[in-house]
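Ticket reopened. Same input as before:
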Amino acid sequence: MTAADTTHVDEWHGDDISIAEVQERLCEMRTTDGQSDLRTSVMTHTAWVPKHWLEAARGTLAGLAEAHPSRTIALVPDPEAGRDAIDATVSVYRFDLPGETRRVFAEVVELHLCGARASSPASIVEPLLISDLPVFSRWRGRPAFGRQELEQLLRVVDRMIVDSSEWEDLPADYALLAECFDKAAISDIAFRRSLRWRAMLAELWPGIADVNKVAVTGPKADALLLAGWLRSRLDRKIALEHEEADEIRSVSVDGEGVSAPRGEAPDPSQQLSAELDQFGHDPIYEAAVRAAK
Amino acid sequence: MTLAPELQEENPLLEGLGLARTPESCSLIIFGASGDLTQRKLFPALYSLAFRHLLPRNFGVVGVARTEESDEDFIERMKAAVQEYGRDSFRDEIWEPLAQGMRYISMDFGDESGWNRLSKTLADLDKNLGTAENRVYYFAVPPEAIATLVENIGKRRSKRGWDRLVVEKPFGWDLQSAQELNALLAKDFEESSIFRIDHYLGKETVQNMLALRFANGIFEPVWNRQFIDHVQITVAETIGIENRAGYYEKAGVIRDVFQNHLLQLVALTAMEPPIDFTSESVRNEKVKVLRSLHTPGPKHVVRGQYGAGWIEGEEVPAYRDESGCAPDSMTDTFIAAKLFVDNWRWADTPFYVRAGKRLARRETTIAIQFQRAPHPPFEAIAGEGLRPNMLVVHIQPDEGVALSIGAKVPGSGMTIRPVHMDFLYGGTFRTGIPEAYERLILDIMLGDQTLFTRADEVNEEWSLVDAIIAFWRRDKPVFPNYAAGTWGPLASNELIQRDGRSWQRF
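Engineering reply: fixed in the latest deploy. New output:
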């Protein structure tokens, strides 16, 4: 399945709109060509996307919709907009199914929450959720720990997905994140990125059982979580030596290099897509976060 | 991501990694490597497994056939086959490691020196590739060649590793030959080493039948004679015999499709919930269904053979005019039957099944028709469109599930119209559906027999087929009795219409 099968069917934009208007537009767009197409959805996917993350988020979401036909609601907070309003862009994408006459649609609703409307996102999202399907939320950047917008969204979603490599204050923020574990299932793309390296480390069992030090060249978050994972799984103190890089380039344990994983690393859409296939709490990740502090 | 089996036990680092199990190091020996199956199915499946890092770390493939061919030519031919028939993009870095473990042996299966060369090649792979004397012997050969193969493999069993035998359909020609084949296999091999392939069982949608029934609370309570009026199973093909006259003239549709695919679909539809998803539990339940099948009388079975006709706008010849077919051939290319599963759950609920070649469209479905609503409280005209609910499991080509329900047509009246609620695999799980052979080859290497047919299942299937063939021998129908591009002989419609029902319309 390639992006070439995707068609941007329809788009509507409105400033200072009501959520009811968005709902009406979505219904209209479903029936514009009058054909009996599939409205298959597997979830509602929400994303909290501060403006400076918007382009990156759009790219990831574009790659994602193909794998997970869904309604995506991107919330772009703009508390400094100078007015209280919601501006919306509603898009419908069509995926042609090879060898079949029917097509599948995905909807993307981008809501700019201006002024005070940014402080209460759950009440905006709830009317747009697809009934009885799981709700995933991708929080771009550092979550607003302790603030209303995060607390509200945690109550609405089944799973919150973060990427702690987007945060600056590590490992201190892991302590704040751990406090959210009893409110919603949380997963972290930084932890997902280390999966291939964790599998390589698992191959070193049982020799790795007595490891004292792990050295990681890679993003700080990935390194902290990898070390936290080793500490929690092996139940021992393990020192971390970290050298910064844009992706995990090497790992060694007690000075011995670990073989690099085979094949190519998944791209950001695939990483997020893999997280969307997970349901419920991930106790392994939660333990790694607690041990990463 | 995968991990070798020896590293999978008691390793705290494995928990939560969600790694797929990787088979132990082994060699795959394909007898009949010059045939169509090897090119179209087996190698594309092996490549897809390699693409997903699901093959063993140390893996060799030895192609064996009578045709003279060098290792290099075999590798090139299989590379072209993967490029033509594979579902994944071709990448040298995936193919090369697979190709490095590929060998070809040209031999007559009865030739001792050929077996010695094969043994030496396998020993070389063990030594140089680390294939650990584990062997999968895949019989992509006509049934008459199997005895020689089994006998020779039995004499050369691996001393350190395991041996597994893979037998393609048809498994025998009747009950007696199937029993003889089972006895032959059992002489040197345990049942746990024998993998009888029915590739339908490797299809995602066939497995989804089990998920649909046993993972959803709403279906099982109504999955019985009280709520289901009847079941229809259709295995329709538009293709003819595709240069396989030698095989098909002897087999006919009853041995080619009915004995295996169709009866397996009946078993999966009618079986009781297994206590778990282990191979023995699932197969225990399937064999109970096969044992419960009431032998149909002559009036409940229709056979046919296609005459000339039109498929997709193209004129196609009659079966008897196909290359290699006898001009007076009495081989069946169509079968329809009304079967009964004589047990508590299904008593008096007919299973109408049909299979054929050169039918109007390619379609394999299981359709469950529920009882009509007992008293629709609508005016007569409003209720005209009210049809019984039907749950349709589409196995191919559009894999998915559809439930038809009656819905009100918008407007002031109360007109009811059937509408479909669709679940389409390709539209929901947009990850690409694996080919049946990928799943089955992987399961063989892992030693998982859940999706393979057990000896007693095969025997039950042949018992039923033998009974049908016995009464077929007593009469001589007028063939051909249906035109290519239609839905089979008129008698097929009469079979179901006698009961006030009709075949599902596609």
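The mean pLDDT of chain B is 90. Chain B touches chain A at residues 1, 3-4, 7, 11-17, 19, 53, 397-398, 422-424, 426-428, 430-432 (CB under 8 Å). Please confirm and we'll close it.
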